Amino acid sequence: MERYTYGIYLNPGNNGFWEAVNSKIYVDKTKLISYTNELISTEQKFICISRPRRFGKSMALRMLAAYYSRGCDSAELFKGRRIEEEKTFGEHLNWYDVICLNMQQFLIEAENQELTKYLEQEVIDELWEEYGEHSALNMFTEYSMTDQGVFEEYTGFTENEVKELCEQFDMDFYGSL
Fold first, then answer.
1. DSSP three-state, residue 101
2. Count of alpha carbons within 13 Å of 24, Cβ hemisphere only?
3. pTM for the predicted model, two decimal places
4. What is the reported pLDDT for 92?
5. Hey, how many other C-beta atoms are within 10 angstroms of the C-beta on 78?
6. At 102, which helix (H) or strand (E)?
7. Which residues partner with 99 through β-bridges?
8. How far apart are CA 119 and CA 123, in angstroms?
9. What is the predicted pLDDT for the residue at 150?
10. Burial level of 34, CB count in 10 A (0-12/13-18/19+)?
C-alpha cells in the first residue's frame, strides 16, 4: 500500500490515516466521507468539524485528507470500510487538491506573530513550492484573506475571538479554506 506524504498543508497524503486504521482503538467513521460528498458543489460545502477534546477531530481530519488528497492512492486504505459501500466512493477518491489546516498547530507555532499573517505565509509558501509563484498566488487569491482575517470571513469571528474560544473551552478548532 502506498503511504505517500505530499506536503504539510497541501495534499498531506494518507500516512496519518494509515496509522489510525492500524491502531488498536480505530473506529470506522468513514460514513462522514459520504456526508461530505453530498455537500460538494453546494452552498453547504464549508464544514467545521467541532467536537469535544479527544473525540476524534484529528482522526477525522486525517481520514478526509487521505480520501480527497490528490497525489496519493488511498483505494486500498478504504477497502472494507463503510465508505466503500457508497455509490460516490470512487467519484471523489484522491481527486482534489486539499489544504489541511490544524488551527491549534498554527496557534502554537505563530507565537508572537499575527496568526492570520503566519497562516497565510505558511500556506502560500507551500503552494508556491508546488505550483510556482504565479499559480500559487492566483490559487490563494481565490480564497483571499480579508483585512479582518480568514476567521472572520469564514466563521464570523475575529482572530482574537477564535483564540479566546479555543482557550475558554480547551478545544481544538479545525477550519478549511
1. strand
2. 0
3. 0.68
4. 94
5. 22
6. strand 101-102
7. 10
8. 6
9. 42
10. middle
First to last CA, the chain: 29
Which residue, 40, 27, 38, is CA-closest to 81?
27
Q: Between 115-131 and 103-110, two packed helices, what is the crossing angle to 10 degrees?
A: 110
Residue 71: DSSP 8-state: T
Distance of CA 145 to the CA centre of its chain: 17
* Cβ contact 57:174 at 8 Å: yes
Can you tell me whether residue 175 is helix, strand or coil? strand
> What are the residue ranges of helices labelled H in 51-172?
57-68, 89-92, 103-110, 115-131, 133-142, 150-155, 159-169
pLDDT of residue 147 exceeding 50, the answer is no
What's the angle, vertex CA 14, arms to CA 8 and CA 18, rounded to 5? 130
Highest averaged pLDDT of the listed ranges 31-40, 102-111, 125-134: 31-40
CA distance 65 to 63: 5
d(CA 158, CA 149): 7
Q: Any long-range contacts for 104-112 (C-beta under 8 Å, 24+ apart)?
A: 104/166, 104/172, 104/173, 107/163, 107/166
Mean pLDDT on 67-88: 93
101: β partners: 175
Q: What is the pLDDT of residue 25?
A: 87
Using an 8 Å Cβ cutoff, are 76 and 1 in contact?
A: yes
